[in-house]
Write a structure and sequence with these properties.
The complex is a heterotrimer of chains A (about 200), B (about 240) and C (about 250). Chain A is of the alpha/beta class and about 200 residues long. Chain A folds into 2 domains: about 120 residues, Rossmann fold (3-Layer(aba) Sandwich); about 50 residues. Chain A is about 25% helix and about 25% strand. In chain A, the strands form 2 sheets. Chain A has a 5-stranded parallel β-sheet, with helices on both faces. Chain A starts with a strand and ends in a 6-residue tail after the last strand. Chain B contains 8 helices and no strands. By secondary structure, chain C is an all-alpha fold. Chain C has one domain. The longest helix of chain C has 30 residues. Chain C is elongated, with a radius of gyration of 21 Å. The chains are: A alpha/beta (about 200), B mainly alpha (about 240), C mainly alpha (about 250). Chains A and C meet through strand 4, helix 3 and helix 5 of A and helix 1, helix 4 and helix 5 of C.
Chain lengths: ~200, ~240, ~250
């Protein structure tokens, strides 16, 4: 019996005093890959933030999550004047290894070899995104919550990222992400339609 | 304690409680204000040094007392809202802020009016006046922060933190202003406070303070009820309360 | 509240780095301190902003009040401290804005370590680069306003302690308003009333010293405020940032 990594029970989401989602039950087991779907404005990002523990005020119900969670939202979380290496080494999430060899290796994995020492604001939007996603090669958090990880990334990068997500899931981790591109990993991917819970 | 807090957190319960509370306390508060004003204006004897101008004390002092208490009440509501996440406490906090700010302003304005005949100037940088002015700024800060947020549920929590920070700071502010004032060797006359107040003036003053507290409570409850009706304007219980009271 | 949380374990995927475990609280604090310090030092021009502001405003006072040295030296403690407060106000409002806009703040929030602790790394960098530099340069401004030389060491110490208090209070207000994209007026409304005791203690210390009296009591009060602030302000800053991220 695989362990539950994330368990949300009867979660309600409010914005202001207006109810957005009602009575959402969502369980993620080890080795599962989930995609949150639903039309724009249904609350995919809000729900993902609630799962990560970033939103508290309008959230009721119980959410059990692992002690460490890797979350990557729309914003890269990088300081524009620091280099990719510096950004990863002193990343504000405090996750992952700080060894320079490992960081260089991860940047090579996302095809950024040679950019290690450039300030991040000299890189393109897609490259900045890759720097942020290089954390996926460095981090031992069991649960990954990714908001639109495939945006601003070319097809080669998307294939790379997809392979990394699958590898994580096969190693016993779990991933929940939101995306507009459907059914990328046909076998493992499960979809969670939030519009069923919309008020 | 726990169950009382939770019961008070239920909007329908509070709505009914507000109805009962206002039915009894609002007339009492208004009567208290009227009697207090008449007593202070006509029955209490004139002051031997200031003549009749001192009578403004019957508004000035109660307003100042209730204004300060209001800030602490607001901070307490903020604490309840942060710790127990009770939405009613948010409503209470946002209901207290404008009333407390208005009372602080009344205290400052009456102080200025009183200052003209006694000190010869509308505004004197006296320790108490200065502290009161800072209290007004603290209230304005909470109100401005609340208005700045679109999401009022978040606004209430931000204001709760600010009010708590202010509460920790208020005793320090008051003490520091006292020291600042004594450091600058005031030349003006000191006439309230330490000198014993005669009972013929004390009783109407106490009555007025009581009446101000009660009026404050009524206005806050009115404010809370209005905010509640706004938030729950589409709820079934409110429709039922309004159609079948 | 979550009860039986699964803990993090090593989950080496097929192509993940298998290396050192993630760090403890102190190492994390150090890494954040490093990150903010480096990011701020890459833009050295901005560090001069409060100093230039201070210089400009100090120049205005003799122009407004007249150049008489006795009058200036009598008013110097008050002027210097008020300008220091305003200089701090201009910079502390932006304290967490960059972190909010580039997403560092949400990553900070998700770190295992308390947000109160991590926000302090940033406040300390801010204090080092604005308050401490201001305190070090302050004798120059004191000379411009003809402050008696007996007051200068006390001015420096009082600015050192006082700017820490100012930065802590500024950080609370900045944390509460970071998501609002609204500047000056709201910040000054939130900060100025809370800064009143610091101003009073600071001015009193400098003017006592300038008049040849012992200023240690006032410096002690500033120190006490700073200690209390170091204990309590992180809680308010952490709570404020958490609330600000919740919009």
């Amino acid at each position: 019996m695989p362990e539950l990594l994330l368990h949300a029970q009867s979660v309600c989401l409010e914005r202001g005093y207006r109810c957005l989602l009602k009575d959402v039950n969502f369980a993620v087991q080890e080795g599962q890959l989930w995609q949150l779907v639903g039309p724009n404005g249904v609350g995919k990002t809000s729900f993902l933030r609630a799962l990560a523990g970033l939103a508290k005020v309008g959230v009721s119900g119980t959410i059990q999550r692992p002690e460490t969670v890797l979350y990557q939202g729309h914003l890269p979380g990088l300081k524009p004047l620091l280099s990719p290496l510096e950004n990863l080494r002193w990343h504000p999430s405090g996750l992952g290894t700080k060894e320079l060899d490992a960081l260089t290796w991860a940047l090579e994995k996302v095809d950024l070899a040679g950019c290690e020492h450039l300030p991040v604001n000299h890189l393109s939007a897609g490259q900045q995104r890759r720097v942020a996603l290089a954390r996926l090669w460095l981090c031992d958090a069991p649960l990954w919550l990714l908001d639109e990880p495939f945006t601003a990334i070319d097809s080669a990068g998307a294939a790379l990222l997809g392979a990394r997500l699958l590898a994580h899931v096969e190693a016993g981790g779990s991933v929940v992400f939101t995306s507009h591109q459907p059914n990328r990993f046909a076998e493992q991917l499960q979809a969670m339609d939030l519009s069923e819970y919309a008020v | 304690m726990w169950s009382v807090i939770h019961k008070m957190g239920s909007p329908p319960w509070f709505y009914r409680f507000a109805g009962v509370f206002l039915r009894w306390c609002l007339p009492l508060a208004l009567a208290g204000l009227l009697v207090g004003a008449l007593w202070g204006l006509f029955i209490a004897p004139p002051d031997f040094r200031q003549g009749n101008s001192y009578r403004i004390i019957f508004i000035h002092v109660p307003a100042a007392v209730v204004a300060l208490a209001g800030y602490y009440l607001m901070a307490f509501a903020g604490l309840v809202s942060l710790v127990w996440k009770i939405k009613m406490a948010d409503t209470a906090m946002r209901a207290v802020a404008p009333v407390g700010g208005a009372l602080t302003f009344i205290a400052l304005a009456t102080g200025a009016i009183w200052g003209k005949p006694t000190w010869g100037a509308w505004w004197v940088w006296d320790a108490r006046v200065t502290s009161m002015l800072i209290l007004l700024f603290l209230y304005l800060g909470v109100i401005a922060l609340f208005e700045a947020y679109e999401n009022k549920a978040v606004a209430a929590r931000a204001c709760a933190v600010l009010a708590l920070v202010g509460t920790v700071n208020i005793p320090i502010i008051y003490k520091s202003v006292d020291w600042w004032y004594s450091l600058h060797q005031p030349a003006s006359i000191k006439f309230t406070g330490e000198s014993a107040i005669d009972s013929s003036m004390l009783y109407p003053l106490l009555l007025n303070i009581g009446a101000f507290y009660l009026t404050f409570a009524c206005v806050v409850v009115l404010n809370m009820r209005a905010a509640l009706m706004n938030i729950h304007r589409q709820s079934a219980w409110l429709t039922q309360e309004l159609t079948h009271p | 509240m979550p009860s039986n949380r699964p803990t993090s374990r090593d989950l080496p995927g097929d192509n993940a780095w298998e290396g050192a475990p993630s760090s403890g609280a102190l190492a994390y604090l150090g890494s954040q301190f490093n990150r903010h310090l480096r990011a701020s030092l890459r833009r050295p021009g901005e560090l001069l902003n409060p100093l230039v502001f201070f210089l400009m405003v100090v120049t205005l006072f003799p122009l407004g009040l007249g150049p008489a040295p006795e009058q200036l030296s009598a008013m110097a403690p008050g002027i210097l401290w008020v300008v220091a407060l305003l200089a701090n106000l201009t910079v502390s409002g932006r304290l967490f804005v960059a972190d909010f806009e580039d997403g560092s703040l949400e990553q900070m929030l998700l770190a295992r370590h308390s947000l109160a602790l991590t926000a302090m790394a940033e406040v300390m960098v801010h204090w080092l680069l604005s308050g401490v530099t201001l305190a070090l340069v302050s004798p120059l401004f004191a000379a411009m306003l003809n402050l008696p030389s007996a007051g200068i060491p006390v001015l420096m110490v009082s600015l050192l302690l006082g700017s820490l208090c100012l930065s802590l209070i500024g950080a609370i207000a900045a944390a509460l308003t970071v998501s609002l994209r609204r500047g000056g007026l709201l910040m000054s409304l939130l900060i100025i009333p809370l800064n009143v005791p610091i101003l009073i203690f600071g001015v009193a210390a400098v003017s006592e010293a300038a008049n040849g009296y012992n200023a240690s009591a006032w410096l002690a009060l500033l120190g006490a405020f700073a200690c209390g602030g170091l204990v309590l302000a992180p809680l308010a800053i952490g709570a404020g940032l958490r609330i600000s991220m919740d919009t």
